[in-house]
């Protein structure tokens, strides 16, 4: 018999590093979720841009079920068919020539930063170790990645941080030009900052960063953990900008909800991770790769990617209408189905209030910092679910503004 649990059990048995909502979801289908009491929610959160094809997508369920009956795990002293097929698909659809699999975005970034350092030291000597990153960035929760991320609230309080990391203002090309030098091994950025407030890079900034990296023999690393896998309307956001990185990291939506991450790069750069220099016990496991292969096959379809922009426009038009009524947002920004509604100064710090009010009305939204409401729904969310979810969100807005 299945043990009965409830939200209060979280406080009893779990480490208190999260503060989950009062309701406990138990079932999802498409863009709808039901909790223990049977209440239905429209899901605009997507597991933080993870559930790229919604909940219980039949193609993903079939891929997982089929692989579960074959082979779950082998050590990385062996390879497996799903990993080879998925890596081949990623190589075919991106700039990359080589792929490293892991389990999360943090692990993918850890691998990328280690590779960037290793490549630079091998080619240019031990002094070429500086990593330049940007304020308000988020790159993961390992000590290395959280130190590269430009938000001290996540990295302070754990003792001495890894050295050789410089943080600059995002989208400030002059600041980057002044800082970068021949001792810089990599410039690391999210083409569209997620946790930092859904802030896209400018075209000039991305192009300028590429040119400066080329000038100083530094690698350009794009963290596409949140912006990748169709989220912005192209398979990866770098394709929207027309600027190719040297290393790209991906996770979140890659597995459509199954934990998997990957680092993509060129053959020349990859050659500096020789046998034994890096690894991941579960990385490239058959279950994760089989599900990701199915997800990527759907996400990469031109019709699916084209529809993302149409859905973006539908969201933006309605959010602007809500704003016209309630004057609550200073800006609606983002790309594709990663959308941020920045709150006006009078509502600063209240993003979580909107999130909680949304839950009461039956819609799941996110925050991206205290001042931005984040929407990251399924890439294939039906228009009817967008409309119904935004009806519920408007009622939430009315409730918060009225306080």
TrEMBL record:
CDD domains assigned to the protein according to its UniProt record, in alphabetical order = OAT_like
On this chain, the residues bearing N6-(pyridoxal phosphate)lysine are: 252
The protein's location, in the record's own words, is:
Cytoplasm
Recorded GO MF terms? diaminobutyrate-2-oxoglutarate transaminase activity; identical protein binding; N2-acetyl-L-ornithine:2-oxoglutarate 5-aminotransferase activity; pyridoxal phosphate binding
Instruction: Write down the required cofactor(s).
Output: pyridoxal 5'-phosphate
A GO CC annotation given for this chain: cytoplasm
Cofactor note text? Binds 1 pyridoxal phosphate per subunit.
In the record, the note on similarity to other proteins reads: Belongs to the class-III pyridoxal-phosphate-dependent aminotransferase family. ArgD subfamily.
This protein's name: Acetylornithine aminotransferase
Q: Which organism is it from?
A: Chitinivorax tropicus
